[in-house]
Prior knowledge:
Strand content: 5-15%
Number of strands: 10
Structural class: alpha/beta
CATH architecture: Alpha-Beta Barrel
CATH superfamily: Divalent-metal-dependent TIM barrel enzymes
CATH class: Alpha Beta
Distance between the termini: 54 Å
Number of helices: 14
Bound molecules: alpha-D-psicofuranose, manganese (II) ion
Strand order of the largest sheet: 1-2-3-4-6-8-9-10
Amino acid sequence: MNDRATDAHASIKAALKAQVIETPSWGYGNSGTRFKVFAQAGVPRDPFEKLDDAAQVHAATGVAPVVSLHIPWDRVEDYAALSKHAEDRGLAIGAINANTFQDDAYKLGSVTHADPAVRRKAVDHLLECVDIMDATGSRDLKLWFADGTNYPGQDDITARQDRLFECLQAVYDRLGDDQRLVLEYKLFEPAFYTTDVPDWGTAYAHTLKLGEKAKVVVDTGHHAPGTNIEFIVAFLLREGKLGAFDFNSRFYADDDLMVGAADPFQLFRILHEVAKNGGFDPARQVAFMLDQCHNIEAKIPGVIRSVMNVQEATAKALSVDLDALRAAQRAGDVLGANAVLMDAYNTDVRPLLREVRKEMGLDPDPLAAYAATGWQQRIVAERVGGEQAGWGA
Length: 393
Ligand code: PSV
Ligand code: MN
């Protein structure tokens, strides 16, 4: 290796060691489609046990020390105790995901509902989530609204935007100095005609109006097929409005499959924009979260595999020779520029990641490391009785 290559190698390794991937509490619980939830043996029965499983993922990978919660699925009596439970296992509480989509009152919407009493109920829940952030040290309130309409004429599109903004403003005003509101968009589902926050433009406009503490969440499964997600990422980063990712992969709609499973090249292209635009710098405060459901695969190994997929795409993205890329771009060398990018994508970064893990004092193979702990056999034997956690459907 020449000096330049040695420096690049060292800085890629440093960035990989510093990476933080946030895992979702609901990924450890039972889940399924709207047709069937398949229960698995050993699944957690409460949020404390979910954190115990998340700690296994962190122990095996060394880069997953943060766990997002979902309220009410993770509602507990004592949030300080939950936060302490996390801390004792080397974890921290990440985003608090609000839920205004599973109550009968929300049939026609939550924060966009025509009835002020329903909007009040929704805002009260969002404010409860901010209280939970205070108690757990969480930085981010993550908002996704199932709000929308199924039929033309059902409700007034503009009035719904007005109601949405008014509610967002009330919640934004309650945030502490170091807290943020991150707004997630999704093209459709459960509403099929209009959705009130369907795309990044709508999320961007609302967060821009709200202020500095409001950012956009890009859930990779929430776009129309063929959407250029890396463009959205580049744009939001440029505007300082990229708050977080919800990583998962999709073949059809919001499939919530393991990130990097369906289209690893897309994940690489997205993370290339992140790397090129400084998005891995902790000061930019981009949260790299998973939002997945492991319906048929083993859950803890499924989360570990997902973390590894993000690491691999990150290592490739960090391997792009940006000087060579920019030189080719300036020269109008279309094929040369494309080749620089493809060289990085086609690099086998697995040996590099094994090296990184060894230097972090970890087993180079996280899945083998997890299997060797015997944790899976232990939870299957011990977690009997009680009600297994699920996503509440
Ligand atoms: C909605 O589809 C979503 O992506 C949001 O992030 C939710 O909070 C999450 O899934 C879990 O339901
Ligand atoms: Mn999501």
